[in-house]
Design a protein that fits this description.
Elements lengths: L7 E5 L3 H13 L4 E5 L2 H8 L7 E4 L8 H11 L4 E6 L3 H13 L3 E7 L4 H8 L12 H7 L2 H9 L3 E10 L5 E12 L3 E3 L5 H6 L4 H20 L5 E7 L8 H11 L7 E6 L7 H13 L3 E7 L6 H6 L4 E4 L11 H17 L2 E5 L4 H10 L3 E3 L9 H13 L1
Parallel strand pairs: 1-2, 1-3, 3-4, 4-5, 7-9, 9-10, 10-11, 11-12, 12-13, 13-14
Antiparallel strand pairs: 6-7, 6-14, 7-8
Helix pairs in contact: 2-3, 9-10, 10-11
Bound molecules: ligand C2E and magnesium ion (2 copies).
């Protein structure tokens, strides 16, 4: 069986020779039918035709309608077509168009630098999957639970931390874990954060969840330490909570009553909105740091996590966003930003943490860059406390 077996393919390319070459390759890979178009406008007509393509191979620089515009229309048409971009443009432009395609909701199999080879084409087509029923999108999910339902769940303490290991790159030792909120819904099962965090933040009601997570994470960490596991625990703190100047005291109290010393807890701060009330946020953060909590800039390099914050908040950790980590071995711009962030952390004398490490290649880049700590699917996914303890036990044996 060949990779394109039975697929209807469409090649969008203004150069006749290249278009025919790619069409021939697709046939040799088993495509049932190959349609051709000389620019985006013709291509749009042909995807509205009877045999709608399963797979589109598309150039970017074309007269009339370029590849970017065609991809936008594809995204809006809500058709389950998979796309391969083939172009002679440079890597960073191709990367950017790849991100654009995903942002428009297009199923992108990948990007090929021209000239297209049979091998490269075959490689990407192996990623093709027939369309299945669309999974619920983030927006559908967040609409699925009302604020009242979420708050009720918090009140009933149905939320619990899942733990994802943080590992020292130099030694491979587990240093601690990040606690990530999961809602164990009595009817719907396990619910991920995107279904409840944003709604809680926007309505100013995130504190109840934060305090519950702090309590459960502190209890867990305290129990680990009693068993002789010298681990830390990281908890996410929403920036909007920091406007209330009593927050630092509330946090300290919850953590101390669980029996944990603040030294063993790191608070990760994500800035999804601009810090509008700077003074109370700085007051809270200074107080937390004074009491011994570690402070981490989460998602560093994105949104409002800016360089300016590093000069005014006493951070102890720089958590470099996964967009610069995942795939950094193959992406020179991500790698450059990643490596200079590690260097900056070193000069500021704070720890560098890479999140979103998914492959051995990326792990090797982090290690060579001298990054301190790694977190990601390559090491382990977030898991229940019992699984996390089993993971730690297996690691110490190794
Ligand atoms: P975050 O704090 O940046 O957490 C990292 C997210 O990346 C987690 O998603 C984790 O499961 C995911 N991740 C870890 N390794 C990998 C990897 O190798 N590849 C990929 N693709 N993803 C990886 P999760 O658990 O869905 O949490 C999403 C976000 O929700 C968190 O991002 C955090 O901002 C927020 N969040 C989670 N729990 C809480 C909480 O208790 N309070 C607040 N305020 N926010 C929370
Ligand atoms: Mg985090
Ligand atoms: Mg993050």
């Amino acid at each position: 069986m060949t990779v394109a077996d039975g697929l209807v393919a469409l090649v969008v390319e203004d150069d006749d020779f290249q278009r025919r070459t790619v069409a021939r390759m697709l046939r040799s890979l088993g495509a049932r039918e190959v349609q051709e178009a000389g620019d985006g406008r013709q291509a749009l007509v042909s995807i509205q035709g009877a045999a709608i393509a399963d797979l589109v191979v598309c150039d970017l620089d074309m007269p009339e309608m370029d590849g970017m515009e065609f991809i936008r229309h594809l995204g809006q048409a809500d058709r389950a077509v998979s796309v391969i971009i083939a172009s002679a443009q440079d890597r960073s432009l191709l990367n950017s168009v790849g991100k654009m395609a995903r942002a428009y909701g297009v199923r992108l199999l990948g990007v090929i630098e021209k000239p297209v080879t049979l091998e490269a084409l075959e490689n990407l087509i192996t990623r093709y999957e027939p369309p299945k029923a669309q999974p619920a999108r983030a927006s559908a999910w967040s609409a699925r639970f009302s604020l009242e339902q979420i708050l009720h769940g918090v009140q009933e303490k149905q939320f619990e931390p899942f733990f994802q290991p943080k590992v020292e790159l130099a030694s491979g030792l587990v240093l601690g874990a990040e606690a990530l909120a999961r809602w164990r819904h009595p009817e719907h099962g396990l619910v991920a954060p995107y279904a409840f965090i944003a709604l809680l933040e926007q309505s100013g009601k995130i504190d109840a969840l934060t305090l519950l997570m702090l309590e459960k994470a502190a209890n867990a960490c305290c129990a680990w330490r009693e068993r002789g596991l010298e681990l830390t625990v990281s908890v996410n703190l929403s920036l909007v909570s920091l406007t209330d100047t009593s927050l630092a005291d509330q946090i300290t109290q919850v953590v101390r009553s669980a029996g944990l010393h603040p030294h063993h807890m790191i608070l990760e701060i994500t800035e999804t909105t601009a810090m509008t009330e700077v003074a109370p946020a700085l007051e809270n953060l200074a107080r937390l740091r004074m009491r011994g909590f570690g402070l981490s800039v989460d998602d560093y390099g994105t949104g409002f996590s800016s360089l300016q914050q590093l000069t005014r908040v006493p951070f102890t950790e720089l958590k470099i966003d996964q967009s610069f980590v995942t795939g950094c071995a193959a992406n020179p711009s991500s790698r450059a930003i990643f490596e200079s962030s590690v260097e900056m952390a070193r000069r500021l004398d704070i720890k560098s943490v890479a999140e979103g490490v998914e492959t051995q290649q990326d792990w090797d880049v982090l290690k060579a860059a001298g990054c301190d700590v790694a977190q990601g699917y390559f090491i382990a996914k977030p898991m229940q406390e019992s699984a996390f303890l089993a993971f730690c036990a297996a690691e110490t044996v190794r």
